[in-house]
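wait is this the right file?? whatever heres the structure
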């Protein structure tokens, strides 16, 4: 269900803060986001959504995401080729074992 408003019918995304005794960085980030949400009169979820949208929409990050996507596609093609080669090697090995 998509709803542009806030409340029970709105889209939701759960956040899980992994902060603890030894993770001051996570705790500091959580406090920063909570303070920004309060300052911007938004929920923490709305603040996170706004930050992700701003990050993803920035040209440098968008270009970086495209670069990562292209790299993953290239690696996927290489992995397919390696899997084919491994399959052929296994066939040759099995054929040689059958002959002996």
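ok assuming it is, sequence goes like this
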């Amino acid at each position: 269900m998509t709803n542009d408003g806030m409340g029970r019918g709105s889209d939701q995304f759960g956040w899980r803060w992994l902060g603890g005794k030894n993770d001051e960085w996570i705790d500091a980030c959580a406090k920063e986001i909570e303070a920004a949400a309060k300052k911007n009169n938004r929920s923490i979820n709305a603040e996170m959504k706004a930050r992700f949208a701003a990050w993803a929409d920035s040209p440098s990050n968008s270009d970086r995401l495209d670069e990562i996507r292209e790299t993953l596609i290239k690696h996927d093609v290489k992995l397919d080729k390696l899997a084919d080669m491994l399959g052929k090697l296994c066939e040759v090995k099995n054929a040689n074992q059958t002959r002996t």
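The radius of gyration is 24 Å. so i think its the right one actually
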